[in-house]
């Protein structure tokens, strides 16, 4: 036996000696934990190993253990991930040496008689997922768990812990309870994710979700407490305010008058130029000015077209929609609009046309494509008709300005469905699998149709999966940006160079495969892609490596009784998609086929259920 394994055995025997000084179950001397046998081979009670000598779990629950927890010996066993000593009579402290159990994911020591402060080093164990220290006599303050973003359970009810409740990564926590302690002060922002039963029984605790509001923070002021101004001073101050007010009003009146004049001048000029109708030599620039509210309280945004040099606007190219027959660029710009968001690729406006048609206009920032290419590209994308890819209904394109027009989709996006407030909506396993299936199939179709032009989506994310009127998912913003290659060069599929770029084209499409894999991870875990410096693919990889695969799945899916087998299959598809080597990622058509077979299995199992 190698020396290291002997040391581990010794540490385990010592750990048990300290836990069970009275030989609680003496039948076979501490459940066989002794130097003459082997923890893994001879299956010591409560010990689970992986392979020949790697101890993974120590589970000794409700076993009358009345000693102390020797963290020093325990954490000599570096491989241990799960320690459960629930419901015994263990006394003493949880000591700092627990920090050496670097691989610890589950620590269950509830229902004992632990006392004293919790070690600050607990917050260094960043693989922790579930911590249950409830029903003990711990006191003192809680360590800072906010950086352990994989933590999903924290139970510390029924102790004598005090001080303020530190911040946690509440977004990821699925169970949290600190009730019946002596905590005080305001509860950190739990983002509406917890109820008051997580906190009650702490008389000095205040703020949401408890009923008792916190007292207002004491007012501090740099002014002396009582400044008794004479009436003359007050009068002076008042007249100062009045003069300032008048100046502001005059300024706004002046602005209003001059703006109106500029607009009238511009209008006259432009009408003349439109009449001239000479599109070839033109370079207009469109500016969308800031939103203002109109009389009805509705937000309107005023677009003002100012021609650079002596040019005029090229026409709006209407692609598919019969709704937009005859719509001119000017009409579009003049319609009331509301800013929906500003992303990295530009701003998005909801535009309300007469007759109740709602559109969205994406004003693209630095798309890196020439006007000519943009036109060709939009036309090529438009020719591929795919039911679940939202078509642009029109576009506008000048040298400085690129606008894309879509129909407004009122039923939200996948991001909000997964991460927004649920509003009672249930997003069950069957629906998630359907969304995955539809998106994969549509993307595979688009890739196939646009392969020769090298146009991938380029910015696939849950926010770009919209739901249409019949709640079917639709991919939006297909191909609006030029995708950068791994080597930093832009992919120009029509630049005449054939074969050397074929690899690049593939890597562009493989970028979509990666982004689709991340969407699958969001569907499976219910977690955000990026949070507190933790990235979802990295986290999933680490959990899967730890062989705690089930821990990655959204709790709602587990509760619903979704098939673990099929969730694992879908997870495997996702992991293939996010392979760090683009070449090794499957094509979208392969991904789609894999998802279809998982879906078919799911359907078979439902129909064979009684
Ligand atoms: N056609 C549409 N109908 C309704 N809502 C839409 C439509 N297109 C986009 N949205 C929503 O508008 C919001 C802003 O969209 P936008 O595309 O500007 O954001 P983004 O995707 O983060 O930006 P970017 O693509 O530039 O990174 C999102 O919530 C998106 O779901």
TrEMBL record:
State the superkingdom.
Eukaryota
Could you identify this protein by its name? Protein kinase domain-containing protein
The subcellular location is: Membrane
Q: Which InterPro entries match?
A: Kinase-like_dom_sf, Leu-rich_rpt, LRR_dom_sf, LRR_N_plant-typ, PRK1-6/SRF4-like, Prot_kinase_dom, Protein_kinase_ATP_BS, Ser-Thr/Tyr_kinase_cat_dom
Q: Transmembrane helix: is it a keyword of this entry?
A: yes
Keyword Ubl conjugation present in the record's keywords: the answer is no
Q: Which Pfam families match?
A: LRR_1 (PF00560), LRRNT_2 (PF08263), PK_Tyr_Ser-Thr (PF07714)
Q: What is the lineage of its organism?
A: Eukaryota, Viridiplantae, Streptophyta, Embryophyta, Tracheophyta
Q: Which GO terms describe its molecular function?
A: ATP binding; protein kinase activity
For this protein, the parts annotated as crossing the membrane are 235-254
Residue positions binding ATP? 362
Principal subcellular localisation of the protein:
membrane
Name any GO cellular component annotation.
membrane
The Protein kinase domain sits at 334-595
Alphabetically list the UniProt keywords. ATP-binding, Leucine-rich repeat, Membrane, Nucleotide-binding, Repeat, Signal, Transmembrane, Transmembrane helix
């Amino acid at each position: 036996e190698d020396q290291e394994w002997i040391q581990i055995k010794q540490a385990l025997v010592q750990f048990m000696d300290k836990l069970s000084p009275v030989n609680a179950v003496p039948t076979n001397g501490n459940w066989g934990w002794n130097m003459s046998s082997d923890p893994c081979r001879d299956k010591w009670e409560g010990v689970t190993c992986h392979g020949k000598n790697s101890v993974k779990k120590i589970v000794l629950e409700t076993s009358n253990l009345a000693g102390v927890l020797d963290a020093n010996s325990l954490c000599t066993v570096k491989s241990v991930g799960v320690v459960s000593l629930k419901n015994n009579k263990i006394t003493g402290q949880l000591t700092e040496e627990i920090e050496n159990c670097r691989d610890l994911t589950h620590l269950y020591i509830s229902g004992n008689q632990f006392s004293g402060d919790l070690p600050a080093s607990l917050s260094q164990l960043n693989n922790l997922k579930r911590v249950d220290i409830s029903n003990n006599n711990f006191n003192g303050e809680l360590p800072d768990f906010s950086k352990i973003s994989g933590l999903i359970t924290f139970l510390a009810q029924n102790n004598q812990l005090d001080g303020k409740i530190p911040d946690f990564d509440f977004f990821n926590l699925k169970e949290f309870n600190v009730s019946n302690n002596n905590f005080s002060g305001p509860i950190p922002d739990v983002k509406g994710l917890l109820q008051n039963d997580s906190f009650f029984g702490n008389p000095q605790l205040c703020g949401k979700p408890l009923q008792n509001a916190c007292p207002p923070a004491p007012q501090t002021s740099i002014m002396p407490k009582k400044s008794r101004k004479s009436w003359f001073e007050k009068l002076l101050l008042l007249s100062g305010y009045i003069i300032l007010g008048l100046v502001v009003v005059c300024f706004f009146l002046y602005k209003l008058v001059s703006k109106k004049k500029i607009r009238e001048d511009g209008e006259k000029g432009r009408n003349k130029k439109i009449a001239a109708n000479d599109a070839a030599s033109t370079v207009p620039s469109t500016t969308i000015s800031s939103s203002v509210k109109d009389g009805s309280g509705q937000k309107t945004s005023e677009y003002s077209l100012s021609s650079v040099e002596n040019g005029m606007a090229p026409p709006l190219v209407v692609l598919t929609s019969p709704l937009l027959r005859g719509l001119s660029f000017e009409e579009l710009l003049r319609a009331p609009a509301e800013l929906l968001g500003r992303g990295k690729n530009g701003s998005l406006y909801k535009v309300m046309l007469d007759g109740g048609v709602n559109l969205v206009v994406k004003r693209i920032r630095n798309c890196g494509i020439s006007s000519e290419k943009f036109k060709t590209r939009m036309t090529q994308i438009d020719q591929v008709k795919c039911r679940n890819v939202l078509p642009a209904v029109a576009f506008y394109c000048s040298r400085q300005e690129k606008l894309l027009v879509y129909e407004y989709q009122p039923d939200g996006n996948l991001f909000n469905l997964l991460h927004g407030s649920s509003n009672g909506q249930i997003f069950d396993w069957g629906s998630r699998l359907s969304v995955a299936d539809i998106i994969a199939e549509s993307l595979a179709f688009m890739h196939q149709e646009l392969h020769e032009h090298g146009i991938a989506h380029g910015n696939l994310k849950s926010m770009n999966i919209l739901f249409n009127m019949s709640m079917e998912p639709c991919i939006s913003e297909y191909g609006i940006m030029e995708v950068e290659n791994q080597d930093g060069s832009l992919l120009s599929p029509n630049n005449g160079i054939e074969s050397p770029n074929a690899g690049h084209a593939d890597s562009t499409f493989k970028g979509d495969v990666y982004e689709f894999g991340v969407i699958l991870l969001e569907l499976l875990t219910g977690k955000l892609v990026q949070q507190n410096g933790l990235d979802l693919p990295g986290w999933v990889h680490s959990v899967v490596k730890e062989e705690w695969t089930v821990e990655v799945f959204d709790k709602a899916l587990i509760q619903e009784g979704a098939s673990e087998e099929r969730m694992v299959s879908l997870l495997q598809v996702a992991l293939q998609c996010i392979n760090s080597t683009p070449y090794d990622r499957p094509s979208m058509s392969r991904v789609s086929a894999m998802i279809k077979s998982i879906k078919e299995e799911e359907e078979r199992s439902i129909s064979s259920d009684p």
